[in-house]
Amino acid sequence: MFLRYISSPICGIKVSIISLGTWYLPRSSEKDEYGIYRIDVEETKRVFKYAYDSGINFIDTANRYHGAVSPVPLTHVGYAERVIGKIILELGLERESLVISTKVAGEMANWPNASGLSRKHIMWQIRESLKRLQMNYIDVYYAHRFDPETPKRETISTFNDLVRLGYIRYIGVSNIPASDLVEYQAIADKYGYEPISFLQYKYNWLERDIERDVIPIAKKFGVFLTVYSPLAQGLLTGKYIDIEKKQWIVPPMSRGEISEGPRRMFIEENLRRLLLFIEFAKSKDISPTQLAISWILHRSLQLGVSIIPIVSISNVKQLEEIVSSLDVKLSSDDMKYLDEIAK
Ligand SMILES: NC(=O)c1ccc[n+]([C@@H]2O[C@H](COP(=O)([O-])OP(=O)(O)OC[C@H]3O[C@@H](n4cnc5c(N)ncnc54)[C@H](OP(=O)(O)O)[C@@H]3O)[C@@H](O)[C@H]2O)c1
Fold it and tell me: How many angstroms separate the alpha carbon of residue 310 from the centre of ligand 1?
């Protein structure tokens, strides 16, 4: 296994080329009083330990995440941050050896100012995230989504203040339209605020919209680009397809059973593309999961942008398979073929 750490042209911090996400965590088979699956904290602990021992130093969460449901009802927001804080302490992991990212903007209560990117909301949620995580600071703090009702300067100057106050180390944005992203960065430049250093967008072999605008911007700004759903919520593992019958299936206990996310992608065009993808993985003697992760890492090199896939994990075995993707080598002909069959 070959785990590397990368930095970016505008940032000295080094992060592992894979990040451990927490939108979904290992689930237990029991449900709580709201009918939502409980988190299997012991398996989550094993996943964190395996990740840490493998050299993964980069952990991604958000103030809203629960770990077994999406969208998260207000009764369950903040749970993932609490679990992370508890596990890191129980495993005795050295805080300074970790790079922790979390996010702000989503709804956290049902009163005005309980969501968005206003100074009031951000200053509230940074303190709450630190409490839930049981930490003194956050390494990367993302604006989770665009808030058209808050002036951009208010948001970016608040993030700048958080760096100055020692609450956060680096500023990130996620899911924000490319033109707004450019405006945020221009405001930071104009007023001498800390720059945006991390981006977070959806990217995988099947869903490549950001190649049009966000990736060129990431390259120009020299920022880290962390990417979510690198396995297309599990589709790229091949488990949602019955190969013999060439049809979609939903395996028991998979995310597709509890969320519409994977099922929304059950369209004819994706079935055709995935069958070719799975066949190609087989021809290389690797799993579709390994091919999907390796494709992103090779794409990062091809494009000259520091792209870091963030993975959610249901058990240690899944993470072992993902970590083993780091040994996979794809040639430029392989990458060309994968582009062709993605069309
Ligand atoms: N900024 C944002 O708005 C945003 C949005 C979404 C996610 N994120 C971040 O990105 C992370 C990853 O996103 P994602 O969960 O959509 O990622 P993903 O890697 O595309 O999907 C992960 C899911 O695939 C399944 N899986 C993983 N490894 C597998 C393996 N080896 N074999 C079979 N199945 C496997 C697991 O689901 P099952 O076992 O349950 O089937 C797992 O939960 C999140 O945890 C979160 O931190 C950010």
Answer: 8
Model pLDDT for residues 79-135, shown as the tens digit of each residue: 999 999 999 999 999 999 999 999 999 999 999 999 999 999 999 999 999 999 999
Expressed in angstroms and rounded, the spacing between residue 180 Cα and the centre of ligand 1 is: 27
**Percentage of residues in the chain with pLDDT exceeding 90?**
99
d(C-alpha 214, C-alpha 209), whole Å: 9
Q: Which residue minimizes the CA distance to atom 4 of ligand 1?
A: 228
Ligand 1 centroid, distance to 77 Cα (angstroms): 18
Distance of alpha carbon 288 from alpha carbon 301, whole angstroms: 20
Tell me the C-alpha distance between 297 and 309, whole Å.
8
Helix H or strand E encompassing 341: helix 332-342
Q: How confident is the model at residue 3 (pLDDT cuts 50, 70, 90)?
A: confident
Instruction: Give the C-alpha separation, 263 to 338, whole Å.
Output: 23
Question: Which residue CA neighbors atom 17 of ligand 1 most closely?
Answer: 229
- Confidence check: pLDDT of 308 > 60: yes
- Topology given in CATH for the domain delimited by 5-236+288-329: TIM Barrel (3.20.20)
User: What are the residues whose beta carbons fall under 8 Å from the beta carbon of 83, sequence distance 6 or more?
Assistant: 22, 25, 39, 41, 44, 67
Give me the residue spans of the domains in the chain: 5-236+288-329
Q: What mean pLDDT do residues 2-14 have? A: 89
User: What is the pLDDT, as a whole number, of residue 149?
Assistant: 98
Residues acting as catalytic residues: 65
pTM score over 0.85: yes
Pocket of ligand 1 (CB under 6 A): 21-24, 60, 174-175, 200, 228-234, 237, 239, 254-255, 289, 310-314, 318, 321-322
* Alpha-carbon gap, residue 243 to 226, rounded angstroms: 31
